[in-house]
Design goal:
The structure holds two protein chains of two kinds.
Chain A: E1 5-11, H1 18-26, E2 31-36, H2 43-50, E3 53-56, H3 63-74, E4 81-84, H4 93-104, E5 110-121, H5 125-142, E6 154-157, H6 158-163, H7 173-183, E7 188-196, H8 199-204, H9 210-224
Parallel strand pairs in A: 1-2, 1-4, 2-3, 5-7
Antiparallel strand pairs in A: 4-6, 5-6
Chain B: H1 3-21, H2 26-48, H3 50-60, H4 65-110
Helix pairs in contact in B: 1-4, 2-3, 3-4
The chains are: A alpha/beta, B mainly alpha.
């Protein structure tokens, strides 16, 4: 069962942790696809040491663009399921296993992780507030009903992988993915997951003010379609 | 509402909708040039015949010609900013597609993979 899953990990300046994260994933799954999104540190070297597939963006293009590259590469691999996973170690491999079990039933096209159905460790109040606002906003723009709209942990089948065409390169891609799900009428389900906010992931995470950019780009995209 | 308020509101909305919904066709690009030409000519007239701006301003319900110019300039600027932002986004999208292709081709050659199109690896398993 390890061979029919591709784990897609976008990496940007994560040299400190990415090696460890990849190794722990490789223990469970053979196909790990890392996209080095023009990191300025040694991320590339750290990935190369692990034996995961390494795709090098010549320039920094943002997480959304990196995911799209990863998905396009993984489509060439003989796998049935695709997983998007964060490089900073905030996701748990056990959650991936639960989500895979769910998608193997064949009832759904895509399984989304939700930290608000599950649990969060070390999430700051201010960040929780912004996330909740983002959830309301995204539910309105995408027309889905979700409890967590900006979770990097997703599991989907080949139909979804083929339909995915992410154009918003930065963090606004999370909303865009949901709009794609809604447009193409993919069957989706949310599953509780645990997200661990370490000091490291906090320092790397999204700043609250960036929500303004995400909102603006999402609305502009909606209008210009 | 005085005339100028109606006009400015309509033009502002028009700019936003035109910029966002309008596709880059030959017609829209031509209209942009025509608008630019009109804008430039208006400015020349405003310099050569300073009184005309005040007269036009009075007709529209604006106190001074200078105020009218300011409104027009602001609208033109907003239009420019939106147009420029959208243009930049589409350029960025093109560059990203190109860079992605480069990254993928490089990876395929390193891993001795041949890019399969269409059904891709599905049939292989």
């Amino acid at each position: 069962m390890k061979k029919d899953v591709a784990i897609i990990i976008p990496v940007y300046n994560e040299a400190a942790v990415v090696g460890k994260v990849i190794k722990s994933v490789l223990k469970h799954y053979d196909y790990v696809v890392c996209i080095n999104d023009g990191s300025k540190d040694n991320s590339s070297l750290e990935i190369a040491k692990t034996g995961a597939y390494l795709i090098e963006h010549p320039i920094n293009m943002g997480q959304g663009a990196a995911l799209q590259t990863g998905i396009e590469f993984a489509r060439q691999l003989p796998v049935k399921y695709f997983v998007t996973f964060d490089a900073d170690g905030q996701h748990k491999i056990e959650d991936v296993q639960t989500m895979l079990k769910e998608i193997r039933t064949g009832e759904y096209d895509i399984i989304l992780g939700s930290r608000f159905l599950g649990s969060t460790i070390g999430l700051k109040k201010s960040k929780r507030f912004i996330l909740k606002m983002a959830i309301h906003f995204t539910n309105i723009t995408s027309g889905l009903r979700l409890t967590d709209t900006h979770n990097g942990l997703r599991v989907f089948n080949r139909t979804v992988a083929k339909g995915m065409q992410i154009t918003l390169s930065d963090m606004a891609h999370a909303s865009e993915i949901l709009e794609i799900i809604s447009e193409k009428k993919f069957k989706y389900k949310e599953i509780p997951v645990t997200i661990e906010y370490t000091e490291y992931s906090q320092s790397k995470g999204q700043s609250i003010i960036n929500a303004v950019n995400i909102g603006f780009d999402t609305l502009l995209r909606k209008l210009s379609k | 509402m005085i005339l100028i308020q109606v006009i400015v509101t309509i033009i502002a909305l028009g700019i936003v909708l035109f910029g966002l919904v309008g596709r880059q066709t030959h017609a829209t690009r031509a209209w942009k040039k025509i608008l630019l030409a009109i804008f430039a000519m208006t400015m020349v007239v405003a310099v050569l015949l300073p009184d005309t701006t005040t007269q036009v301003a009075h007709v529209l319900g604006v106190g001074r010609g200078a105020d009218l110019l300011l409104y027009m300039l602001t609208l033109a600027f907003i239009g420019y900013v939106i147009n420029n932002y959208l243009h930049q986004q589409s350029e960025k999208d093109t560059v990203h597609r190109l860079a992605r292709k480069v990254a993928l081709l490089d990876a395929y050659s390193r891993y001795n993979m041949k890019e399969k199109l269409g059904d891709e690896a599905e049939s292989k398993k």
